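Board notes, transcribed. Complex of a protein with FE2/S2 (inorganic) cluster.
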Amino acid sequence: MDPVDQWKGKNLLFVAGGIALPPMRSLIWTCLDTRENFKDVTILYGARTVDQLVYKHELKEWEDRADVNLAVTVDPGGETPDWKGHIGFVPTILEKLAPKAENTIAIVCGPPVMIKFSFPVLKKLGFPDENIFTTLENRMKCGLGKCGRCNVGKVFVCKDGPVFTLKELNELPAEY
Ligand code: FES
């Protein structure tokens, strides 16, 4: 079953960093198209600087919606004098916002360092590994599960992923 179908009736927490918003926004819009299927929707998005925030018009749309909680942050030093959003790294702001873990699916997409430091925060907040989703960015060639370029152990990232839960990642060899 499509993971989005499995998320029905749950809260959704999207955590995106840098240029991960473009792939993440398609998923966000897919979920917002059937907004009635989900409970609270929270989006945390961060970039290094205000200039590097992408899809600013869509951020504004989400900010204006009563059924979306949006938090946008820039790294310390990346703010402009008129910046009204958060200042701090994504995992820091995630900890500060402390979204509730109960009945919530977290979808994390961004630079490896952001993902690495966001997982412990989510775990501290009480998110079980099977409710945390992320993507692997292994190098790919055929994209069909044939060439063996992308595999981690027996798992082909191109065919079996690239979206995995943290629970599934924990079961992979440490090389991913
Ligand atoms: S890219 Fe060839 S097996 Fe995955």
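The chain has a mean pLDDT of 92. Strands lie at 11-17, 41-47, 69-74, 86-87, 104-109, 132-135, 151-152, 155-156, 163-165.
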